[in-house]
Amino acid sequence: MSRLFRQVDVFTAVPYLGNPLAVVHDADGLSTEAMQRFASWTNLSETTFLLAPDGEADYQVRIFTPTRELPFAGHPTLGSCHAWLEAGGRPRQAAVVTQQCGAGLVAIRTGEDGLAFAAPPLVHSGPVDDDLAERVAAVLGISSDEVVDLQWADNGPGWIAVLLASADAVLAIRPQPGDLDVGVAGPHPPGGPAEFEVRAFFPGNGVMYEDPVTGSFNASLAEWLLSTGRAQAPYVARQGTALDRNGLVRITQDADGQVWVGGSVVTCVSGAVDL
């Protein structure tokens, strides 16, 4: 069966400088096995499938890496919403799209600056024990003395957030083999290209892979930085520099304290796929 297909680039207004995402429209009737097989074939960090919602959401999305399904992920949320709107989707509530995913309902705001999703609550926060902190430093290929602070910042994928002294220190990281999901941030000097430089690493096949731009980690990182006074909203984080990308993540916070994670999305490929 032929289904509408898009490949979009997330957290960039310039094609091929962000994080790519494959989106299959009208995926109702596809089995989980078929979805996983296609996601493995695209070999992107995530592939999503848009389905009819079960309840009051505007659409339902299922999110797959090449090896497993995820309950939530940030850049697939923005990319899927962009694809749904571009295909003619109309939200029930003006300027707010409600997405249904494995983690529940996610609100996505639309505006002139692009899309922004409401950061989900953390499922695991707080201090990291000393033994784990040593493992984190080893995975990053740095000494423990170089770590300004770290803590659990897990909103689903399992992130541990690490703060270093500077953006240059973040860019100097050369990750070593490990089995942890680790995100790192360091401040740029005033007048720099962004407030923070961010990198995110995850394990696979005995090595650590780097994600070009990571919505879920930037969401949990923002909650940590804002709550500890290390950042003030709004701010911009840059990610992907080490991979020759230029992802820009916009962090805002509303009067109720809700953190929003936003960015631009562009469509790079559109057509149909036989599934």
Fourth CATH level, the homologous superfamily of the largest domain: Diaminopimelate Epimerase, Chain A, domain 1
Number of domains: 2
Q: At CATH's second level, what is the architecture of the largest domain?
A: Roll
Q: Share of helix among residues?
A: 10-25%
| CATH-derived topology of the largest domain | Diaminopimelate Epimerase, Chain A, domain 1
> What is the CATH first-level class name of the largest domain?
Alpha Beta
Could you give the count of β-strands? 18
Features:
single chain; 275 residues; alpha+beta; Diaminopimelate Epimerase, Chain A, domain 1; 5 helices; 18 strands; globular
Could you please describe the fold and organization of this structure?
- This protein is α+β, with helices and mostly antiparallel strands and 275 residues long.
- The chain has 2 domains: 2-119 and 262-274, Diaminopimelate Epimerase, Chain A, domain 1, CATH 3.10.310.10; 124-255, Diaminopimelate Epimerase, Chain A, domain 1 (Roll), CATH 3.10.310.
- Helix content is 19%, strand content 40%.
- It has an 18-stranded mixed sheet that branches.
- α2 (74-86) crosses α5 (215-227).
- The model has no long low-confidence stretch (mean pLDDT 96).
